[in-house]
């Protein structure tokens, strides 16, 4: 029997954010016909990840794919706990990022927003990868790796800012870019959906802020890739 795919996101009180995540899950179902795809959450929304994993029929295999962009408390604790208590074979895949498909999406969003304008003098534009943040140092490592992938795509430096947790705050990263000579600062929203952290990014003072990543096709493609890789 094909393992159940459990798409586990953080959860949000934002209706727009909920719709964005649901859109990703719907697209995953379309891309994996014949695979049972269940939605689960670690906070705010239900059903909770523990209940969804526990509800998989005894003996049936399942794969939890975190709809989270970085390693952190929710992957190491919440999802790991649910997997350990599963009634049948169950594994969790890595978080969605860092991933080159997401770097491509971010680069596409930035260029569509005007990055790389022909009349921009050298050093006039700067990019801050704006992430939610975490108390887990592994998340900061993942975001730094994502910034490197994006910088390679853009052919220019990319700094990092966080809405919470460890690391420099987004508004401070924006201010630092201006102090270094940038006259137009782009905040690349490295969050999946509208909600609290997207609001923090929007209010951090960048000249241009891109939209959250979901429900873009690239996000669903990474979920499918993570699932398939777990079956090898």
UniProtKB/TrEMBL annotation:
Gene3D superfamilies: 3.40.50.1400. CDD domains: CbiX_SirB_N (cd03416). Keywords: Lyase, Metal-binding. It comes from the Bacteria. Signal peptide: none annotated. InterPro entries: CbiX-like, Sirohydro_Cobaltochel/CbiX. This is Sirohydrochlorin chelatase.
């Amino acid at each position: 029997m094909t393992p159940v795919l459990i798409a586990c996101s953080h959860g949000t009180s934002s209706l727009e954010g909920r719709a964005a995540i649901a859109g990703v899950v719907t697209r995953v179902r379309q891309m994996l016909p014949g695979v049972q795809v269940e939605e689960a959450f670690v906070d705010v929304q239900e059903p909770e990840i523990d209940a969804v994993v526990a509800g998989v029929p005894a003996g049936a295999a399942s794969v939890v794919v975190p709809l989270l962009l970085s390693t952190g408390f929710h992957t190491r604790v919440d999802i790991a706990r649910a997997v350990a208590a599963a009634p049948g074979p169950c594994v969790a895949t890595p978080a969605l990022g860092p991933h080159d498909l997401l770097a491509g999406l971010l680069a596409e969003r930035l260029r569509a927003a005007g990055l790389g304008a022909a009349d921009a003098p050298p050093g006039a534009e700067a990019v801050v990868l704006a992430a939610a943040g975490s108390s887990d140092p592994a998340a900061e490592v993942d975001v730094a790796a994502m910034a490197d992938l994006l910088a390679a795509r853009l052919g220019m430096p990319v700094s990092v800012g966080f809405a919470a947790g460890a690391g420099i705050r987004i508004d401070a990263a924006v201010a630092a870019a201006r102090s270094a000579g940038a006259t137009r600062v782009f905040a690349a929203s490295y969050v999946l959906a509208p909600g609290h952290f997207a609001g923090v990014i929007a209010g951090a003072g960048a000249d241009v802020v891109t939209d959250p990543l979901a429900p873009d096709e690239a996000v669903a493609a990474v979920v499918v890739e993570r699932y398939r890789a777990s079956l090898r």
